[in-house]
Structures are given as C-alpha cells and as structure tokens.
TrEMBL record:
It comes from Rotaria socialis. The chain crosses the membrane at residues 196-215. PANTHER family: BTB_POZ DOMAIN-CONTAINING PROTEIN KCTD9. InterPro entries: 5peptide_repeat, Pentapeptide-BTB/POZ_domain. This is Pentapeptide repeat-containing protein. It holds the Pfam family Pentapeptide. The keyword Transmembrane applies. Gene3D superfamilies: E3 ubiquitin-protein ligase SopA (2.160.20.80). Keywords: Membrane, Transmembrane, Transmembrane helix. Signal peptide: none annotated.
Length: 632
C-alpha cells in the first residue's frame, strides 16, 4: 500500500521578500491525505512579492522515486532586455507530512540569499550570453558550449522536465516560443541560472553551470556574507527603533513626567537625534509620527519651550503621503530648524505647520493644505510646490532659489526679504491682490535678480527723546560703565537755550553718559549680503559748554547673527557750536551684518569746577534708514 502523507489543501498566499515564512496562515491550515504533495512558488522581482500555491497538481509523469525532488522550470533570457523579472518553481514531494510546506520554507530562504547582488548577477549572465553589438545571439547548449542561434531568435531557454532523470534541454529558443513570449512581454520565467538554490543530487547540472557562468564558490560565499550582513543590519535597526519607542513610552507614562521640565525634553531630544542617525527613511518617518501623536511636536498644545526641538535632526529623504492607512493629518506640526533634503509631503494637512529656520533643500509639497505655515528663514532651494493651498504663509527671509510654484493658491503670503532668484514665480501675477489680501513683497529679490520696494522706514526708536521725556519708558538703555543720558522737555524748562528739532524734547548728554539701543536688520540680509544695502545715518548736535573740545556723537556697531563685531561707524558734532546743527553720513552696510547697536553720548572734558554736570551736549532727531545702492 502506498504511504499517505498530510498535504496542504489548495491555497494561495502572498509574502513580501522581507516577510518571515515560518508558519502557515489560518487560511491555509486545512490539509488532506495523498501519496504526493504539490507546491508552486513564484518570485516577482519587480513587486518583491512571493506567490505560493499549495495543492495544485500541475506536473504529470514525473517518474521520480520516493524521497526525490521534482522540479519543472523554464528560463528565458532576452537580448533586448536581459533583466530577470520573475521565476517559478513547480514541485512535488513524497518524503513526509507537509513536505510541500517544508520545501517552500527552504526554497524561500534560499531565494532571499540569492537576491543579494542580483543586478550584478544579471549583468554577468548577459555579458556571457548576449553580446550587445550582435544581432545574432549565443546560448549555452546542454554540454556547456555556446552555440549560435538563428537570425530571428532573441532569447536563450532552459527547460528541465525531470532533473533526476536528466530530461532537460537548453540552448536557443524556438522561433514560435520566442515570438510568443515576446508578445506576452515575459522577460524571464525562472532564475535557475542563479546556481545551487535547489536541493537534491544534481552534480552534472551544477558542474556545468559552475563552469559556464564562472560563478565561483567564493562569489557565492561573498554574496552569502553580504546577505547575512544585510540581515544583521536590518535586525540592528529594528532593535534600535524598538528600544527607542519603549524607552520614550516608559518616560511619558511616568507619574512625574512634566513637559515643562526641560530635563525630560532634553532626554527625549538626545535619544531622538541619536536614533534618527541610525535609522533608514521608513523608520525615521515612524519616529516623527510617534512624537507627533504624543503631542511632543505639535505647536498648538503648549508653548514652544515645552516641545521637543529637532533642530539639526537628520530626516533626509523622508516621505509623508496620504494613503488608505495614513491620512497625513499633520496640523500644527513643529519641525523648526530641521536638517533635511528631498523631504516629501503628498496630500497632507499642514495648516499652521512650523518649519522656521529649517534646511529643506529640494523639498516637495504636493496637493497639500499649507495655510498659515511658517517657513521664515528656511532654505527651500530647489523646492517644489504643486497644487497647494498656500494662503497666509510666512516666507520672510526664506531662500526660494530655483523653487517651482505651480497651480497653487497664494494669498496674503509674506515674501519679505525672500530670495526668489531663478524660481518660476510669476511676480506680475502674484502682485495682483486676491480681494483685499495682497501678497507682501518688501526687500524681496525677484526671479530676474531685481529687488522689490525696500523698507525705508526709520529704524531707530525714540530718536527724538519724546518717549524718554514724556512717558519715561524708552528703548534706550544706559550703557554699561556710563552715567544716564536724560531728556530735556523744553515745555517744562524755559531756561534752555536750545529749541528741539522734532517735538518738545531732546537728549541731554553730560559727562560720562551714554545710552544704547539694539536694532535688528535681518529682514535686509538679502540686500546686505549682495552689497546693495546702504545706510543713511543723521542727527542734530549742539554742546552747551565753555570747552570748545566737547562734542556729541552717535556710534553704530554692526554685528553678525553670532554677535561678532564686523564694523563700526561714528557720527560726531563739530566743535564750538552752541546751537543745533545737522550732520549725516552715508555708507555701505558690511556683508554679514544682522544687527547693530546705536550708542549716543558726549565726550566732555571734566572741569575743575564743583558743578561737573553743568556742561552738556544735546542730540536730537537721530535717524537711520536703509536704501538700495541705485537709489542713493
């Protein structure tokens, strides 16, 4: 009596190339008894999917004995397109319960090892069989010799009907098969040439293929080592990711966790930046979504000081895309100052997102709601904006060089100090207001290199001392190591011989007195760094003193964004003038300047009299504004 085995009932299942196949799914748990079990495995190298079919008898008259493997395979290698797209293996076995399942597990494991270095294998195989310069190709015969095919034959084939019985054929395809397969678009139906991925006693075939294709054992060993290393790297990355999620989750669940405690946020930030550096794109994306869902990077839940700062975090190439399983709802996302290139947002909700100061070169935003987003001072060189809602976005100080903005709604967008050079922005169109909500162009460089209107407003606050003498609140601060600068209100003091230039007040600078004020000029940085920003500094001076050497001054000191001094300018009064006179100075603002401090005071010699505060110098109407070089 022929022995009966437990075989998997007819079932079709799919796996990805990365999935582990250790157990049968519930849909394939049913079994039946038979003296032989059948399986059919297909590997699709385009979609990276594995199709396994159990219980389908598609092999007849095998003549294989108990314990033997039976493999029916066919290989086609095209001259025009020699990449292997997919492979099939038909098999039946006689040597134990669920031998079809065990065979499939082993076969999939072997195939995974062989997919490492797959492109290199294809190139070697093609160069051996299919010379690029020849219209007539050569194929391997059964004895391992290269034979010349007919003029119309474009593929080599290998047919193995029963390896154990050595019933096989290889060589040139038939013309009918060649044309038929070409019409179907089949480039490759098996990867048998991959050498030694099957089981069983096939020394003859193995020896032929080893010699013909020069796939030496050391190459196989190298491929296996690379595959093992790849698996080890994958395991390491998964371990890093799992450890991060576990550690941060435990921290968030602690009773004493308080986001207002900066020490907790520092721990999360440190772990996050370290983890991001060790992971690939997909897991980096999951890290960001984990932080977002736990409200650690949402700017509407708490002050920015209580969010996890990811500045300089490595998110290169990460993609957020709406799908059936991910809605891409990222409203109020906070990713200020991140370091990223080629980031993609596709069909996402990004209202009120904050990317202030981020480096986002070659970023892509497609079909997304971006209204009220903050991109101030961001680097968006080469970025692409397609079919977005971009109402009320802040691009002030942003670099949009070579950016592409297509089919998007731009309304009340702030382009102050933005660089649009070589972009495709249609300035004439963007200048037309949508209703009453016009886009803002101040200190902006246009695509052709010209500049928009420049903000020529007075940048020094309370330059005439009106606030100091009337409300006693003023932006002026006493300089370190100096006495106070005061204000004289001529409406209250009729004894002063001076008449104010503006209003009722002026600055009173006595011996060793100085006041200072910090002025920000970041919104002129584009004009400044292109050496087209000029300043106009002016003031009115007078000195009430018997010493002809006493004089008043206004001094400007320029600093970088790192507070490094780069240049200074000094405007002084003439000597011996007891009534207000006007002085001004014009010059080029040094490249790199982002702020300047303005100091007002007087150089008064100390007299021998007891009343050392009697002599003083007056300053009024201190002004500073910026203009373009050609407007000078």
């Amino acid at each position: 009596m022929t022995r009966q085995y437990q075989c998997v009932q007819y079932c079709v299942m799919y796996l990805t190339f990365n999935e582990t196949f250790d157990t049968l799914p519930s849909a394939c748990n049913a079994t039946y008894q038979n003296n032989e079990c059948y399986s059919h495995i297909g590997f699709n190298y385009v979609t990276n999917l594995i199709q396994i079919t159990f219980g389908e008898q598609s092999i007849e008259n095998s003549n294989a004995g108990p314990g033997d493997y039976y493999i029916s395979q066919e290989t086609e290698m095209w001259h025009e397109a020699y990449n292997i797209q997919w492979t099939t293996s038909k098999h039946k076995c006689y040597h134990g319960d669920l031998c079809d399942f065990e065979y499939s597990k082993a076969k999939i494991l072997q195939m995974r090892k062989l997919t490492t270095g797959f492109n290199q294998f294809q190139q070697k195989l093609a160069s051996a069989l299919l010379p690029a310069e020849a219209n007539i190709i050569g194929c391997l015969s059964k004895d391992g010799l290269i034979i010349t095919c007919g003029e119309n034959i474009k593929s080599c084939s290998l047919n193995i009907d029963n390896v154990y019985a050595n019933k096989s054929h290889q060589g040139c395809s038939s013309q009918s098969d060649d044309q038929y397969r070409k019409q179907l678009g089949i480039l490759e139906e098996t990867s048998y040439y991959l050498n030694a991925w099957y089981f069983g006693p096939f020394p003859l075939i193995f020896g032929i293929f080893t010699v013909v294709f020069t796939l030496k054992q050391d190459s196989i060993a190298r491929i296996n080592r690379e595959h093992d290393q790849s698996l080890a790297n994958e395991l390491r990355k998964q371990t890093v990711y799992d450890t991060y999620i576990d550690d941060i989750s435990r921290l968030l669940l602690r009773r004493d966790f308080n986001r207002s405690d900066s020490s907790y946020l520092k721990i999360i930030r440190t772990k996050t930046l370290s983890t991001l550096r060790q992971l690939e794109i997909e897991r980096k994306r999951e890290i960001i979504l984990f932080l977002y869902e736990n409200e650690l990077i949402q700017n509407n839940k708490c002050p920015i000081e209580e969010l996890v700062a990811l500045d300089n975090g490595d998110l290169i190439g990460i993609e957020f895309k709406h799908s059936m399983t991910f809605r891409c709802e990222l409203v109020n996302l906070y990713l200020a100052s991140i370091l990223v290139s080629n980031i993609i947002f596709n069909d996402c909700q990004l209202r009120n997102a904050d990317f202030n100061g981020a480096s986002m070169v070659q970023a892509t935003f497609n079909d997304s709601i971006m209204s009220s987003g903050n991109f101030m001072n961001s680097d968006l060189t080469g970025a692409s904006f397609n079919e977005n809602n971009m109402r009320n976005i802040k691009f002030a100080g942003a670099t949009l060089t070579r950016a592409r903005i297509c089919n998007s709604i731009l309304e009340q967008v702030d382009f102050t100090n933005a660089d649009l050079i070589e972009s495709n922005a249609n300035i004439d169109q963007l200048m037309i207001p949508i209703g009453e909500k016009a886009n803002i162009f101040i200190n902006t460089r246009f695509p052709n290199g010209s500049f928009s209107a420049i903000n020529r407003s007075q940048l020094i606050l309370d330059g005439s001392a009106e606030e100091m003498c009337t409300t006693k609140t003023t932006p002026w601060k006493t300089a370190v190591g100096f006495e106070n600068v005061t204000a004289i209100n001529t409406g209250n003091e009729s004894s002063t011989p001076l008449a104010p230039i503006d209003g009722h007040c002026f600055f009173n600078c006595s011996w060793n007195s100085q006041a200072e004020q910090l002025v920000h000029i970041q919104h002129f940085s584009l004009l400044i760094d292109n050496e087209q920003a000029w300043y106009n500094l002016s003031a009115h001076f007078a000195c009430i003193s018997t010493n002809q050497n006493d004089k008043a001054y206004v001094q400007i000191e320029y600093v970088t964004d790192e507070n490094a001094d780069i240049d200074s300018v000094r405007l002084e009064s003439d000597k011996g003038l007891s009534s207000f006179h006007f002085k001004y100075q014009i010059g080029l603002i040094p490249s790199g300047a982002r702020d300047f401090s303005v100091n007002i005071g007087a150089d008064i010699e100390r007299t021998s009299t007891n009343n050392i505060s009697a002599p003083y110098c007056a300053i009024d109407s201190v002004t500073y504004f910026i203009f373009k070089k050609e407007d000078k």
